[in-house]
């Protein structure tokens, strides 16, 4: 496993990270044993960066990770945790809270569920419109000074917020969606992170499976939020699957699967970009990790982009109401 430094002030992490969200019900019914086995397989393959959120399964995901890490050396793993999303007992999304007191309370619960005394990278999952980012970051700084947090990250915020946050404390990475079909960061956000020495942890590199080569029309079942996502709806889904098929043809000519080509493309955009693989099964993880072996030439990259042109995806990455709350989209 290759390693890279996460931003100019961050830790050394594996070239690919593992996103654990799908192991806790966000994509429908999940298999706890397979989730733990997948985390073990990732660790055995040299993956050190595990990403989660305290609202994934309302703590289920953190406890799953804690179980998977039993018997492992804590210092060999970097835990990246998002906080702030508010949910009700029916799993509805009811707002965001990044007030200083809420930051510290959320951290206390995460430490308990994860069974650890520190978190490597702690970040608000979104910008709280009611709380200046300086106050949120300032609260995390308090926790850095107290030893409960090692590094501070951001998620789904735009250039102005990035600059304001970095003025309070060094930011090691911005976690944001980035893939062949989600290239919105390239014009304004990526130049700022590179100017400030902030890494990118890219999630959604397969657009939640849409361009993996495995997605089938109407596949989303009960409890799978993709069933309500614009890119998975009707004509949008059909158009996007046609893009995935075109990518698959280019990939096959190079001895790659569709997913491997998509992931390798993201990795090829710079060593400051760490793809976060959202696998929840060992076979999907093994397929994805092989993308690290792909050596894409300039011609290869051009053909991949010709198959999936920038801006060609049909539908937004989140529903309209959610898009309106993304600071990164403003």
Automatic annotation (TrEMBL):
Domain NADP-dependent oxidoreductase residues, every copy: 17-307
The keyword Oxidoreductase is annotated on this UniProt entry: yes
One GO CC term, this protein: cytoplasm
Keywords for this protein: Oxidoreductase
Pfam families the UniProt entry points to: Aldo_ket_red
Domain of life: Bacteria
MF annotations from Gene Ontology: oxidoreductase activity
Gene3D superfamilies the record matches: NADP-dependent oxidoreductase domain
Stored PANTHER family: AFLATOXIN B1 ALDEHYDE REDUCTASE (PTHR43625), ALDO-KETO REDUCTASE YAKC [NADP(+)] (PTHR43625:SF40)
Protein's recorded name: Aldo/keto reductase
Organism name: Rhizobium terricola
Source organism phylogeny: Bacteria, Pseudomonadati, Pseudomonadota, Alphaproteobacteria, Hyphomicrobiales
